[in-house]
Amino acid sequence: MVLHTTPYSSACLHFLDGLSWSLVFPCYWLLDRLLASCVATSLEKRQRSQDPCSFLTLCVLISAPLYLLLLLTSLPFALLGFIIWAPLQTVRQPYLYTYLRPDKHQAEQGQAGLGGVGIGEWRPQGRSFCFSSANVCLLPESLARFNNLSDTHRRAREVGKRIRNGASRPQIKIYIDSPTNTSISAASFSSLATGFRHTSSLEQRSDQTHTINGPADTETEPFTECPIHPSGAADCPVHPAAGDQANNNSECPIHPSGESPDCPMHSTGPQSVPGHHDCPIHGEGIQAKFSTDCPLHTSGVQISISAPEPDPQVEEAETGNHQPGDQAGGDTSSMTASRESLARYHGVDSGVGMTSNNTLSHVPRTSVLKRPGRKRRHGDETFDHDISAFFPANLDFLALQEVFDHGSTTRLRPQLHRYFPYVLSDVGRYGWKDCCSRFKFLNSGLMLASRYPILDARYECYPNGRGEDALAAKGALFAKVHVGTSHQEQRVVGYLTCTHLHAIEGDASVRCEQLDLLLRWGAEFRQSSSQPPDGEKVLEDLVAFDVILGDLNFDNCSSEDKLEQQHTLFTQYKDPCRLGPGEDKPWALGTLLDPSGLYDDEVSSPESLQKVMENEDGRKEYLVFPPSKSQCPASSQKGRKIPLKGNGRRIDYMLYSDEGLQQDWKLEIEEFSFVTQLAGLTDHLSVAMRLAVSTGEEEP
Questions:
Q1: pLDDT tens, 606-654?
Q2: Where is the composition biased (Polar residues) (predicted)?
Q3: Which of 330, 423, 466, 477 is most open to solvent, judged by the fewest CB atoms within 10 Å of its CB?
Q4: What 3-state DSSP class applies to 174?
């Protein structure tokens, strides 16, 4: 089980590859730019219609002939480079494995990096893991424009920033002490934004931690929604006047200058324990009876915040053609999520003290008000589901599709490595190789990132691609990850599959053949990776999960996709969004966005797209639905009046299997999310799932 950390087995081959590509690249880039200048996005068309003599139009008229002239000049060099490059692809490795080299302090603690998870002893009660899948449409510039997207390299960098910002944000849990509700709910920052200052999605967590995205925003918002007094009231102990704030250097919202030793906000002794001090709002004698209206009496609602470890200064291991690239902080000039896309906490300014275990040590002077969460549970559903503006906090595994462009890979990978220590990228074949009968101009577009060590990986190419899909080496990436060690020193492992199926509509038989291959290859990979090395006696691995992530290019509601809907894949793996063939659960959403509306203001930010997806009319306007007999499949979805079935085409899947687990081990979905954080960067919604693995044992 050797992971390929370089694209070639020898330095000589690597040098020849670099030399040949340097001859081919000018021609490739000029051709890409020439074609891109002929295909305009809807945003560019809008700008040109508003100003026909705009600078953009002038640039196109001048650059197109120039690109053509330079392209013809570069052709002889490209031909020479191609003659060297094409044969090299037969010996090129099918993927590139890169990882973060831990520093000395992390090595002592057994940690792998910023987002790395220490591989410790497997807890008897089990563990939960979070998975996410996203089609990011990082095609070469000219091809991306056919999906109404442009500026692929900038989008690649921004995709990485948003994913790591969403995954590395603190996770807030609200513990509610109530006679009618004893459950524990996890709330996203979007439902707890009141009372917190906001920063850009490119900006960073509290100054109390090491930054990974640049300096924090110091702009503050005015105090609003004071729970103590009505608007305009004076002498509020929590909401002091502006002048009082300027004259008071104390962080205490109750008394000035920290003079009172009995202040429940300043006290560090046993008196600060909820229920054992005098509530400054309720007065004496009522501590035993907690009031839900008291913003400072935290016995009714306790909030804990957990966040990943601070960002250390780590460098990426030297791995073949993997360039560190773009390790600088966030670029605030690039496309960002909206100003409200990531609410942060700032301990110094707001008075929130963070303890060593990242929990809220005392209430900020701007109290957090409880708002209705966006998480819902439909009917007899056993797990929460929601539409989230952020990727889940503490994301463990990420599967990406359509990372076809090599330049985008080199920009996206360093961004992901600042949260995920282990990444499989540049997956697939070029040229002619094995079962791939046609010449492959693009690789598979698959990428897999993990916070847990990857033990083994394999890529397989689908041999039956047709039409334009045959030009890409679409296939399946299988990985085995190490998630823990049992008391008996047995490894606890998980299996991940990332795939992207044939896309052309009407080719149901092709996709079914690919699903057959997917199941067969997966079984072969699990069997081969579980075999011990020759001559060694090791304990059998304990399997915690087996998950398939990816874009399957068919939905569960279209009449044209009936063949795929009834495939045996869905008897071996469970789909959390599916009721049966041809019927999704009522809360399930389509994941394919209408490309014509990507630049509308209504869906330009994660929050605005989230609000649109929560509205039925918004979904009908901006999601692609199964084609109707009275509607041409290629026509725009906007402005139609025909009846629509379901909530859009859900072609991005997250499937899990409980077959092959240990006896008494069980898998349960904790939550499922449709994620809008990549609004404006791709024509797909992302999906995320948190899976709990229970062992049936009791905690000692």
A1: 999 999 999 999 999 999 998 654 444 444 454 444 445 668 999 999 9
A2: 320-338
A3: 466
A4: strand
Q: Is the Cβ–Cβ distance between 130 and 688 less than 8 Å?
A: yes
Question: Is residue 660 helix, strand or coil?
Answer: coil
Closest to 340 measured CA to CA, from 690, 676, 686: 676
Distance of alpha carbon 570 from the chain centroid: 25
Here the tokens at position 38 are 């002929």
Phi, psi of 613 (to 5 degrees): -70, -20
Read off φ and ψ for residue 231, nearest 5 degrees: -55, 130
> Taking each helix axis from N to C terminus, what angle separates 55-88 and 11-38, rounded to the nearest 10 degrees?
150
- Any idea what DSSP says for residue 254? S
**Residues 92 and 8 sit within 8 Å (Cβ to Cβ):** yes
Task: State how far the Cα of 263 lies from the Cα of 277, in Å rounded to an integer.
Answer: 9
Kindly tell me if the per-residue pLDDT of 421 is higher than 90: yes
Say if residues 576 and 689 touch (Cβ distance below 8 Å): yes
In sign, the C-alpha dihedral spanning 548, 554, 559, 564 is negative
Which tokens in the block code for residue 509?
Answer: 């038989």
Mean of per-residue pLDDT scores for the chain: 74
Q: Encode pLDDT of 510-522 as tens digits.
A: 999 999 999 999 9
The predicted structure's pLDDT at residue 700: 52
Q: How far is CA 591 from CA 46, 111, 396, 588, in A?
A: 26, 35, 21, 9
Q: Are 131 and 547 in contact (CB under 8 A)?
A: yes
Instruction: Tell me the β-bridge partners of 304.
Output: 173
Between CA 500 and CA 496 the distance in angstroms is 14
Measured distance CA(215)–CA(96) in Å, rounded: 33
* DSSP assignments along 259-320, one per residue: --TT-TTT--SGGGSTTSS-BTTTBTT-TTS--TT-SS-TTSEEEEEE-PPP----EE--BT
Q: How many C-beta atoms surround the C-beta of residue 644 within 10 A?
A: 19
640 burial via Cβ count (<10 Å: 0-12, 13-18, 19+) = middle
Residue 480's SS3 state is strand
User: What are the distances in angstroms from CA 296 to CA 9, 232, 364?
Assistant: 63, 20, 9
Contact call for residues 614 and 387 (beta carbons, < 8 A): yes
Catalytic residues: 684
Question: What is the arithmetic mean of pLDDT over 166-188?
Answer: 56
Identify which of 475, 476, 419 has the alpha carbon closest to the alpha carbon of residue 450. Answer: 419
Return the minimum-mean-pLDDT range out of 7-11, 127-131, 135-139, 183-187.
183-187
What is the distance between the alpha carbons of residues 209 and 309, in angstroms, rounded to a whole number?
Answer: 8
Strands 542-551 and 652-657: antiparallel
Q: What percent of the chain has pLDDT over 70?
A: 61
**Beta 384-388 vs 666-675: how paired, if at all?**
parallel
User: Do strands 447-450 and 436-440 pair parallel, antiparallel, or not at all (unpaired)?
Assistant: unpaired
Instruction: Fill in the amino acid letter for 633.
Output: P
- Those residues whose C-beta lies under 8 Å from the C-beta of residue 656, and which sit 6 or more positions away, are 545, 546, 547, 548, 573, 574, 576, 667, 669, 689, 691
Element (H, E) at 495: strand 491-500
